[in-house]
Here is the input.
Amino acid sequence: MTITRREFIVTTAVAGAAARTFGQAPAVIRSGVRPVVVSSANGNRFKNGGTVTAVEKAFSMIMSGSDVLDAVIAGVNIVELDPEDDSVGYGGLPNAEGVVQLDSSCMHGPKRRAGGVAAIEGVRTPSLVAKAVMDNTDHQLIVGKGAQDFARNMGFNIEADLNTPNSRAKWLEWKRRIDPDHYLDPAKRDEASRKVTLEMMREGLLDPGHVYGTINCDGVNAKGEVCGVTTTSGLSFKIPGRVGDSPILGAGLWLDGDVGAAGSTGRGEANLYNLSSHLIVEEMRRGRHPKDAAMEALRRIEANTVEKRLLTDKGLPNFYVTFYVLDRSGRYAGADLYGTLKGKPRQFAVCTENGPELVNVEALLEGGLDS
Here is the structure.
């Protein structure tokens, strides 16, 4: 079998990638592609007792020649399994009845395939179940008990309760304050729930950045192959059965292998209404940089947020939505409605040949979100 000089260089570069260390440029970048992994900030914070973060794990696997989707899922597994992160997987903040329900989706650019699960209980790593849906069925989304039954049939361990002492204590405190068994009229219930959540944030019981939860992780290798995954425990103390944007293709995750990928964290309902990740990828298809494409989606969200309960006293959205975007050449961006939340900078994680780091997002709106 004969191969071209370019094919030989690419093959040997991938084979030798495992021996390279961060801080050294890749030996070969095919057709101008720069391998990169991007994710939400928790992708470079939690290690589950190990030595590497999600983006670091994913990038190392990509540079060692692993399939990009396998790499980014292995990365988010670190966060899903870490009990200290209460926004995803094991120990994620439960619903209003104290039950941890998880959502996830994944997409494989080269294979043009996707899979997802929603409101699944008892499985610590819903991202792996989402991939099992992609690999073993003709479907793209399985939900609720059906998703749990499917996971059991695939050999996943089903646990009775995914709460940790931390997540259970926070739910009990929330339940004590709001008494969710006493259904108020919709307006008063929303006001009461929001009031209690804000109180718990002010008291340091809830992390403002984890009320919506989630980790999105996307990667591209030296061949320009793009894959992505999003996984979450969803909105904290949500109505049982509520599903946000994370498992919905085009909302919490979307990619086109010829263009790039986009994923999100933040208020899922706003992202669902605008199918923002799909919009971002289509804007990149038209030639826009990942940052500019994300800004277009954020402008769309701002324009479509008109309910008074969702607006600040300045008439701006009173929630955050963050996008993590890359194109198949390796350009990337992190963008949010606001640059700060409760005085702290909004950040995203990125890993290149220079190693993992947290980078401040680009913001659409001036100032920060304090409520």
Notes: DSSP finds ten helices and 15 strands in the chain. The longest helix spans residues 186-202. The CA atoms of residues 69 and 279 lie 22 Å apart.
